[in-house]
């Protein structure tokens, strides 16, 4: 019974298979000659190449390349741009405040001398520059 099923499966699969199409192979059998495709001649594309070359010559090249415009910007570049003016004002005010603190310490005649006060102000300025 299993042999009959195999015969039926083989017969059904033979009928369902598509006919082969030969593009680059020339069969020797006459039965398969019907399935060959016609040989096509290559077309000349010199005209198309000449047109492409002429179009490439007409295009203008960018003389100067600005790398800053090509590089992607950081996500917070616009925030930094908007806050830059405010930061300049704050830096000026901070410098004034440091100067006033130093003057007050000198006027108060504390135990610190002028050199230590200037050194304290310079260390604060250096620390604020490192934070940026």
Keywords, separated by commas or semicolons:
132 residues; mainly alpha; 5 helices
Tell me briefly what this model is.
By secondary structure, the chain is mainly alpha-helical. It contains 5 helices and no strands.
Could you spell the SSE succession in H and E letters?
Answer: HHHHH
Number of strands: 0
Give me the number of helical elements.
5
Instruction: Tell me the overall shape.
Output: rod-shaped
Rg over alpha carbons: 43 Å
Poorly predicted ranges (pLDDT <50, ≥5 residues)?
none
Largest sheet: none
> Roughly how many Å apart are the termini?
88 Å
Class computed from helices, strands and strand pairing? mainly alpha
Write down the overall mean pLDDT. Answer: 75
Helix amount, in percent? 55-70%
Into which percentage range does the β-strand content fall? under 5%
Could you explain the architecture of this structure?
The radius of gyration is 43 Å and the shape is rod-shaped. The protein has 5 helices and no strands. It has 132 residues and is an all-alpha fold. Helix 4 (77-107) runs antiparallel to helix 5 (114-131).
Give the SSE layout.
Elements: H1 2-16, H2 46-58, H3 67-70, H4 77-107, H5 114-131
Helix pairs in contact: 4-5
């Amino acid at each position: 019974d299993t042999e009959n099923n195999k015969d039926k499966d083989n017969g059904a699969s033979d009928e369902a298979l598509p006919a082969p199409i030969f593009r680059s192979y020339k069969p020797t059998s006459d039965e398969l000659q019907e399935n060959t495709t016609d040989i096509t001649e290559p077309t000349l594309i010199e005209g198309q190449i000449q047109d492409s070359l002429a179009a490439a010559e007409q295009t203008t090249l960018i003389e100067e390349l600005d790398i800053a415009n090509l590089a992607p910007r950081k996500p917070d570049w616009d925030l930094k741009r908007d806050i830059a003016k405010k930061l300049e004002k704050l830096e000026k005010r901070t410098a004034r405040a440091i100067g006033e603190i130093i003057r007050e310490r000198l006027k108060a005649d504390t135990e610190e001398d002028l050199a230590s006060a200037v050194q304290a102000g310079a260390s604060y300025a250096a620390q604020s520059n490192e934070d940026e």
